[in-house]
Amino acid sequence: MLVTVDTGGTKTLIASFTEDGKIGEIFRFPTPPKEVDYITLLRTVIPEKYGKEDVEAVVVAIPGTIKNGVALWCNNLHWKNFHVQAALAGILGPKVPVLIENDANLAGLAETRSLKPIPGFSLYVTISTGIGTGIITGGTLDAGLRYSEGGRSLVEYDGVVREWESFASGKAIYNTYGRYAKDIKSKRAWAQIADRISRGFLALIPVLQPDIIIIGGSIGTYFPMYKEKLIGILKENLPEHIPVPKIVEAKHPEQAVIYGCYYYALDSLKD
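RESULT FIELD:
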């Protein structure tokens, strides 16, 4: 059995997987804003739910820059230099490893492997509380780009250079329109949202030139509302010799991270 944790900006999901990929019950909790409370939550729930099971690994996804088990910075949670791996060491005993990785990387891993055939180079973008990116080559995390943060790309919007996620994330959309995506019915509003989302892609596509772009997260679930407008903007503005990649909606926009934890564990345990 594998235990997986998807730490989001607002909620945390905990679930188990059998070795052949069957997911167990998903437990949902509000993500505690303080690091110590977050660790207390996991150290309480995980032993309670899985302490008597034969667990091979615990995989924790964190929405931030992760290096050597440390969350250097989580923008929406305001966690800094958080030693997550050390704080969770031994949570299910000394023989059960605890693996830590960026959430968008893991979501990208899961969504890329769900495609047949697996693309050679994919860009996964989760648009939720913030914007995260995962770059996958040959069906595995790209070692050279695993620390990239596409959501923090500096682009122009409304005459000001700012971070992409500051005006195109789910949080920014709510702050602008005063409602969640599910409640936005106006075609004009969705055209404006497509424009916001396009700004980051116009910066990333010429640099990365992925075979496919996969959009996930809470805003990803509404991809049909802005797909046509987004692709139109990209076609109009990208250089003639740089084609618009195929853009698709994530197959599991709300659960991609938790599935990515599973795949990441399988890869890590093989090494």
